[in-house]
């Protein structure tokens, strides 16, 4: 048996903790456990985030490496192609130079412009000689052949020794400043010719190896193009600011920037304002992209919508593929609604009282035609059926068509007698005291029956007094008693005075 514990040792053993102390220690251990778990989760999350960021960074580095290699490969290709491109361009210049010298020496006769072949030969003749002034003078009077010019001018410009310089010299008469003397409103707008030449120059300037990735333009010509752009910008104040610049001038300026590649980042705000101000031009959405305004297109579209130019906004939307963000059908319906309100305002305007209905109809017709064209261009028939719009357009055009419809020739046509007699009777509605028959109107192709066939109750009308002059009354009976004095003798025009009643035209009674 073991020995019993010493009473002194029993006194030194600590007493068991109280219930409160035990509860406190348990709570402390629970808090530590929860804190440990929270810290563990936090650091685990940090570790996962670091791993994800590290993987993303590795992916970006790999992408950057791939892009760098691709860029270096492109640069190497461009560098290697430089000699080939310059060789081809130089050979072309030499050939064009020889052709120009030969043309000047032989004095080539100007071809007749009777078809597309003759037009091309005429244009080439100017280009071979680098005669930009004659080219321009010829072009500005050929607007009626715009479609043919659009096809033939790029071919002709390829015959120039220096096509970019040729174009700048050709349009210098009106761009960047109009230097013409005696200009008038009729011949003032030559922006179409400037834009046509600048657009036609683009394919001519393309690199023979890289295509539109590189333009073949000499540094001196590019500096000149940049100088011209700066002159045009400085002239904005003289023109009254951006709001007062004419759209053809804006179009020429923007096309000039794109053609010669002299776009500047610091001028993006100016380009945006110019594009929005001339947004109705068909080429503006594409020009905006070429100017580098692709990132600003959403806000430009919103600005167009706020200005009531929903149709222009639709064109811009489809150019950049934002039809999901800016659905076209609600925009087109809003455009038609605004046009209807504008037409109603025209009708209410006292200043337009004379032709208010005409102006209001024109407004609605123009809006409907624009929407119909938009529906057709972007294949929106399923979302916006055009049948109702076409019917509305027909209804709006109906009064105009009826007005233009020629009046039918009456059965008894008024012609002057060969013996120099008086004019035949005028229309009944033109005389305030003229008699208008109460009988049903006979069609123009049916001759009225003789007077003897009318009921006896119909009274006979006497001869008119001399106040009619050369006019005969619309209804005359030879049996009637004459007025006192000398009776008026009527020549037998078309049934008058021959016992036949005149056949009145239905239009007289409308």
UniProtKB/TrEMBL annotation:
<comment type="similarity">
    <text>Belongs to the Frigida family.</text>
</comment>
<keyword id="KW-0287">Flowering</keyword>
<feature type="region of interest" description="Disordered">
    <location>
        <begin position="396"/>
        <end position="431"/>
    </location>
</feature>
<keyword id="KW-0221">Differentiation</keyword>
<dbReference type="InterPro" id="IPR012474">
    <property type="entry name" value="Frigida"/>
</dbReference>
<dbReference type="Pfam" id="PF07899">
    <property type="entry name" value="Frigida"/>
</dbReference>
<protein>
    <recommendedName>
        <fullName>FRIGIDA-like protein</fullName>
    </recommendedName>
</protein>
<keyword id="KW-0217">Developmental protein</keyword>
